[in-house]
Amino acid sequence: MTFSKGGIEKSLGPGIILAAACIGGSHLMSSTTAGARFGFALVGLILLTNLFKYPFLLVGTRFTAVTGLSLLEGFKARNRIYLPLYLIVGLVTGTLTIAAVSFVTGLLLTNIPLFSLFPPMDLAIGILIVSGLILLLGKYQALDRISKILVLLLTVLTSFAFISLIQRGSLGDININFINSTPSPWKLENLAFLIPLMGWMPGPVELCVWPSLWMFSKSKDTNYVANKEEAEFDFNLGYLITVFTALLFVSLGAFTMYGSGESMMASSGVSFAQNLIRLYTESIGSWARWIIIPASFAAMFSTTLTCLDAYPRSISAIQGLLQKKDRGINSTSSESRRLRLWIILHIFASLTALLIAKSGGVTVKDFVFGAMTASFLTAPIFAWMALDTLNSPLVGKQYHYGTPMKLLSWLGLLFLGGFSMIFIAHTFFGLGIAS
Hints:
Elements: H1 7-11, H2 14-22, H3 25-38, H4 43-67, H5 71-78, H6 82-109, H7 120-168, H8 191-199, H9 209-222, H10 228-257, H11 261-266, H12 270-284, H13 289-322, H14 333-359, H15 364-390, H16 403-429
Helix pairs in contact: 2-7, 2-9, 2-10, 2-13, 3-8, 3-10, 4-9, 4-10, 4-15, 4-16, 5-15, 6-7, 6-13, 6-14, 6-15, 7-10, 7-13, 7-14, 8-15, 9-13, 10-12, 13-14, 15-16
């Protein structure tokens, strides 16, 4: 491995921001609920999902480090349909995702006495406005620094909660079994939970584009261009943090809530957020409230902040590339103005989605799990686009994946595609449903 003096410090950022984006709904909601409903039986599935998504999510980092191009530039050069396809999906999923994570963040604030009297919708609007101001005024520098603080905070606090639970010895009525549980998760009727769990575990595959774009902003901020080894070290560190915290949330859910997962997720609105905190504090102690609340809020606010930057950044870049105005790497004043406009547009679009959801009686579970499901069903498409671009003549053969990573990539495609087809067959064609 080749690291220059101070290179790691100057390169550290895009991978950590990616971790901040990932450690949110998939960890706080899905991972915790997985432990609450099925104990440790889904640990293997969570680890496999992280493993099979790894080669696809890494593509953006490697592609940019070795070519000097963004992955979106690679998409445009590789196949003319890749960029429009990413744009269409990004416009839809971006709005839903930002709305969903901001709403959950607002719900968590209701556990703090100062905010408990405010409606969650008002708090979600406040979260969106604060996040927007941070990005509009502080730009990438603020995103980079705040994300590092939030990731450190939530990792330390969640680890402390887990250690305190183990030392307390109050581990609930559960036998640690990594294969099965009562009830068993390995039934077709549980696909409606398993697919969303995998959809955002550790994040949607379309996130492969984000570190690629952030690398240009990081380079501009530090006047340093990371080489392949330094960029991938940053990515791998962030990825390890996401896997580690996912396992922590599964363990906390299993030890504190096993047997109550169904009732927890059946709740909506304020009751969901209050149940989440209550179940933790009943098992660990009332003092844990001031550990779990900040950790949970840090997880969701970091996701809101990063998504509100990344989706507009991607769409702004695609606009520049499709119109042949610029490279879409936010290196000019016109690109910066366009990014700010897209951030503002995403705030208003997300607010509209929240209001529509509220008027239609959509629960927090439906909102978030719907976005997660959509992310999983589109995962095979983006996985193929990423892999195809990395293996193209745009990248020197010495930087293509070796045999182990190629094998993992093909297994990942089979994994993502196979589960997607099973879900579609079960949901729309009644596979496995008794007549």
